[in-house]
Amino acid sequence: MLSRTRLTRILQNMALFLGAAAIIGYFYMQTYDGNYGLVAQRAYEQEIVNMTVERDALRTSRIDWEHRLELLRSDRLDPDLLEEIARRDLGFVKPNDFVLLSPR
Fold first, then answer.
1. In the chain, count of helices (H) and strands (E)?
2. What is the pLDDT of residues 41-80, one digit of tens each?
């Protein structure tokens, strides 16, 4: 009878330690591979870098478009830019112009 209670106590202690190890292992895996873990953090940082590059490209594009619109204002009309836009949109070409067609 004494050996049976000793075996029960040993098995209870083993179950307690295995349960604690399982819980610690679960939380370890969540910190590494969970929704907010280390892998996800690296993915978020890479996404931030990509979005920053895209934002900078959009800012540059916006500055270029603002400059082109500034040249088309009625008080500062640039004749070369107006001619370029008219030729492109209306398809006019002078007889001695060299035209390169590019696929859109």
1. 3, 0
2. 999 999 999 999 999 999 999 999 998 888 777 777 777 7
